[in-house]
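Field reference: "sequence" (input) and "structure" (output). Example, Protein DETOXIFICATION:
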Amino acid sequence: MAILNDTTETTDLGLPLVERKTPADVGLETVLTESNIPYRSRLYLGACIEMKLLFRLALPAILVYLVNSGMNISARIFAGHLGSQELAAASIGNSCFSLVYGLMLGMGSAVETLCGQAYGAHRYDMLGVYLQRATIVLALVGLPMTILYTFSYPILLLLGEPKMVSCMGSLYIAGLIPQIFAYAVNFTAQKFLQAQSVVVPSAYISTAALLLQISLTWITVYVMGLGLMGIAYVLTISWWVIVVAQTVYITNSPRFRHTWTGLSWRSVQGLWSFFKLSAGSAVMICLEMWYSQILVLLAGLLRDPALSLDSLSICMSISALSFMVSVGFNAAVSVRTSNELGAGNAKAALFSTWTATSVSFVISVAEALAMIASRDHISYIFTADADVAKAVSDLCPFLAVTIILNGIQPVLSGVAVGCGWQTYVAYVNVGCYYIVGIPIGCILGFTFDFQAKGIWTGMIGGTLMQTLILLYVTYRTDWDKEVEKARKRLDMWDDKKKSLQK
C-alpha cells in the first residue's frame, strides 16, 4: 500500500502535490479507508499516526497556556511582596481583566475554525484574510472595554470593594488597558499559527516573554521603585513583546508565503458576519471560565467563608493546573478536526476526535489518582494551616471527579470549535451550567446545609450533564455531512470565489 502518491504535479499555488498534505495526514485517511488491511491493524496504524500529530500540537500548546497564566501569577507574586493592599489590587485587576481575556480568546476561536478548515482545503490565501478580519473585529470589540476599565474605580466601589483597594486597583487596571489590544492581535495570530500546526515558535516566544517580564518587573519594583504601576506596565509590555514577535515571524518567515500575502482590502469586508460567527465562540468560552469563578464567589456566602474560600481556592488552583493539559488537547484536536474536515477526510476527523478524547481522559484519570493519593498533604504546598488542609482533604473526591470531567469536556469543546458548533455549545453551556448546575449547588449548599460540598456537587452535576450531551452529539455526528458543511462554510467566506461565481 502506498501512503503517498509519487507525483510531481503542482497545485494552482505552485506547490508540489505531495506538499499539500503531510505524509501523516495522507497516511491516516488512507489507512482508515484501506479495506485490504485488517481492522485491528488499521486502528493500530491510525493510532500511531494520530498520536504523533496530536502530541506534536498539544505539548507546545500546553506550554503556551501555562506560560501565559504564569505571567499573571508572577505579577501577583511581585505585588504580594509590596503589601497586602497591593496584592488585593493586582488580584482584582487580573480577575476583572479575565473578562476581556475570555472574550478575546473566545472570539479568536472563530479564526481557528475558518483557518483550520481553509488550510485543510488548501485555500491558503484566505488564512491571511481571516487573520486580518478577525484582528479588526477584536480590536473594535476592545474599544468599549477601554471605557469599562477607564471607569473601574466607581465600578469597584459599587461592588463593595474598600476605597483604598479600589483606588489602587483602578490605577493597576489603567496600566493594563493597552493589553486589551495586545490580546486582540495575539489570539488571532496564535490561532492562525495553530491552524497550520505551527505551535513550537509560540511556545518559545511566550517563554522568552515570561523571562523578560520577571526580569523587568524586578528592575521596576526594586531598582526603579515604580511599585504597583511598574508591575502593570511591565505586564502590558510583555504581552506586546509576544505580539510583535509573532507578527514579525508571520510576516517575514517564508513558511507562510502562501498563507500570508500582505494586507488586503478583503479583510474589511464581511466584518459583521464574522462578528456574529465569533460571538458564539466568545459566549462559549466565557461561560466556561465564569463557571468556576462563581463557585468561589458563592463560597464567600457560606457559614465559615474564610475556611471555605481558602480550601476552594487551593482546589481550584490544582484544578486549573490540570485544566491546562486539557486545554492543550483542546487546541490540538480543534486543529486536527478542522484540518481534516477542510481536506474532506471524514474518517480521519472522526478518528482524531476520539483519539484526543481518549488520551486526555487517561491522563486526567492518572492526575486524579495522584491527587487522591496525596490528599492529606497536597494543601501544604499552599498553606501551613491544619484546618485548611483537612478541608482540602475532604474536598479532594469532588476535585478528582472535576479533574476527570475536565479531561473530557474541553476536548469535546475543541471538537466543537473545529466543526464550527460554537453557538450550539453556548446554548448547552447556559442550560447545563446556569439553569442546572448553579441552582442545584445553591440548594444543596445553602438549603440542605451541605456547604462547599453541596455547591461543588451542583457544579459537577452541570459539568457532567454538559459532557454527556457533547459526548452524545459527537457520537451521533454524521462526519460526511460535516465535511459538506465545512465546504459550504468556506465557499461562503471565500470572497474571491463568490466574485467568480457572480
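The chain has 18 helices and no strands.
The chain has two domains: 60-268, 270-493.
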